[in-house]
Amino acid sequence: MYRIVSARFLAENIKKFEIDAPRIAKKRKAGQFVMLRVGNSGERIPLTIAGSDPEKGTITIIAQGAGKTTHELNAKEAGDTITDIVGPLGTPSHIENFGTAVSIGGGVGTAIAYPTAVALKEAGNHVITINGARSRDMVILEEEMKSVSDEAYITTDDGSYGFHGFVTQKLQELIDSGRKIDYVLAIGPIPMMRAVAEVTRPHGITTVVSLNPIMVDGTGMCGGCRVTVGDELRFACVDGPEFDAHKVDFSNLGDRNKIYQEEEQESDDDYRHSCRLDSHA
Questions:
Q1: For residue 129, which of 159, 163, 158, 160 has the smallest C-alpha distance?
Q2: Are residues 109 and 75 in the same domain?
Q3: Torsions phi, psi for 117 (to 5 deg)
Q4: Which helix (H) or strand (E) holds 24?
Q5: How far is CA 224 from the centre of its chain?
Q6: Residue 48: beta bridge partners?
Q7: Could you give the CA distance from residue 248 to residue 234 in angstroms, rounded to a whole number?
Q8: Nearest partner of 249 among 205, 193, 199, 200, judged by Cα
Q9: Could you list the mean pLDDT of each consecutive 10-residue stretch along the chain, which spans 281 residues?
């Protein structure tokens, strides 16, 4: 059992947890993730490690309630426990002094982009961050991203805060201004990562995306997380989760992530219905 030290919502359906996991906290590196199981009969889900405190022995994860398991997790509070957490898993982010590095987070993807932005700054890069959200009340980790940025931009789809538009439009604006950009990391919904790849492709800018396909064990045994990168079939859990954005087959990734869409929706509906019955009782 893993004890939750603190828990608070950052935005609607997006919750930040600090969890007692000293061995993971000591070894984790930027870009790695954990496989988490909320209860004894629950499924395993991958969540990126957003941060850690080796002295306290805690790790930080941020979850968006999108299905049964993440809604169950977000119902947890400080003092509650989580049945299983396995990690750190995955290949850490490749970090070096690229020069000017742009870290882009779309929605809850900002939680995944943040630890890599920290590592890029520590490596001596000029770090530009672009934090995108649907609206002002969905912006997360604004101050944290600013603290590791030489330049920080917020974009909102509805224009309620910061730049009115998508992260790709802000990135294109930076490129069009003549800025020399050496490296781009983009993490968020599949359409967003695909769009970023198409913005940087004509300019030959090294672009990396962090993929989150369906995973079962996170150790390369099940093959559920296979993705097509160039002419190769790769396992996101052990070969990734970060890959060259210009080689990822995003269409295949999107199709594979929809395989269990109906079952996932049915499971989430059943969970929400039982929760309503419990509240009435």
A1: 163
A2: no
A3: -60, -40
A4: helix 22-27
A5: 19
A6: 33
A7: 10
A8: 193
A9: 95 94 95 90 87 95 88 94 93 95 93 92 97 94 94 95 95 94 95 96 96 81 87 90 94 77 64 58 53
